[in-house]
Amino acid sequence: MENSEKGYKDKLVRGLLFWGTVNMTAISARDLVEEARKAHSLSHVTTAALGRILMQTAMMSAQLKNSSDNLTVIFDGDGKAGRFVAVGKEGGRVKGYADFPEVELPLKENGKLDVSGAVGTDGELRVIRDLSLKEPYVGRCAITDGEIANDFANYFMKSEQQPSLVYLGVRVDPKTGEVRAASGLLLQPMPFCLESDIELLEKRTGEITRLTRMIEEGNSLEDALGIILDGFDPEFSEEITPAFSCDCSRKKIESALVSLGRDELKDIIEKDGRAELVCRFCQKKYEFGLDELKELLAFAENAGEENDIEE
Ligand SMILES: [Zn+2]
Predict the structure, then answer these.
(1) From CA 138, how far away is CA 159, in angstroms rounded?
(2) How many angstroms does the Cα of residue 274 sit away from the middle of ligand 1?
(3) What is the pLDDT at residue 310?
(4) Rounded to the nearest whole angstrom, what is the distance from the C-alpha of residue 98 to the centroid of ligand 1?
């Protein structure tokens, strides 16, 4: 039975561990990853890869304060599925895509999906924080592992000098490709956290990797965390509902068409007489007929004239 059928909806929780010395963010996101899989017809391996990236992006975006803030994560690696891009907004809303979502790879020797084969083990991980009124901040680090969680831990250490424990797991049905469970955990000790507590946490790494399986077996996120982090005093203070959600609209696509310029638009009108644009992030189709294109052309011509005057 699926978690959603049991009443366990996707959720993202934030809180503290070790009597307030470790920041904790956790996510259970079966439905979110399944939405992404359906939108992009993801293969098994790209479901796992994009699912992990989307969950981490949601956990990082949960800290955003304004509706105009966004956080973009780009895995620009040498893997078979090309680039992976995810964008997060406040409230745990994320969207994302893979360059080659259909790429499937043989399972690894240990029976697991070959995520690093899809993502690559060489390349760059970029995190762009675009916060209101400030220049976007771009953090970078080399991709070395390609299994995503370690790459993020590496990123936090190298780019933000923040030690972090990152766990991300997506369980995919081997036959249907459907997402059975997906979860993630981000633990970040504060500067005054005791070294001995960090060591205790590190010893739990094996337990932490059971999180997604435990959720698949019917535990709620909080119950599973309570078991895994037993003795570490986990305290939950905030809960939101993450979602795979795209903010594309006909208006945005129209502006994109106008920004192509007069010549390009005339070309489309003469050659095709219509246009179909697909949103990269959610695969939604936007169709434009001849009359609409002519209107946009008129708009582009007016805009062009205004520019001419300014020049
Ligand atoms: Zn979209």
Answers:
(1) 9
(2) 20
(3) 42
(4) 14
Question: How far apart are alpha carbons 74 and 128 in whole angstroms?
Answer: 8
Tokens of 68: 């105009």
Q: What is the mean pLDDT of residues 205-209?
A: 95
Q: Compute the distance from residue 88 Cα to the ligand 1 centre, in Å.
A: 13
State the Cα–Cα distance between residues 282 and 82, nearest whole angstrom. Answer: 17
CATH number of this structure's domain 4-244: 3.55.30.10
Ligand 1 centroid–CA 191 distance in Å is: 40
Taking ligand 1, which is a single-atom ion, which protein residues have CB atoms under 5 Å away? 246, 248, 279, 281-282, 284
Q: How confident is the prediction for the chain on average, in pLDDT? A: 93
In this structure, which topology does domain 250-310 adopt according to CATH? Answer: CBS domain Like (3.90.1280)
Give 77's contacts (C-beta < 8 A, 6+ positions apart).
83, 84, 119, 120, 121, 122, 123, 124, 143, 146
User: Measured between alpha carbons, how far is 61 from 95 in angstroms, rounded to an integer?
Assistant: 12
Q: Which own/partner pairs from 63-68 qualify as long-range (CB within 8 Å, at least 24 positions apart)? A: 64/88, 64/89, 64/90, 64/131, 65/90, 66/90, 66/131, 66/132, 68/132
Please, is 229 exposed, middle or buried when counting C-beta atoms within 10 Å of its C-beta (0-12, 13-18, 19+)?
Answer: buried
For position 309, what pLDDT does the model report? 45
DSSP-assigned beta bridge partners for residue 139: 127
Domain residue extents for the chain: 4-244, 250-310
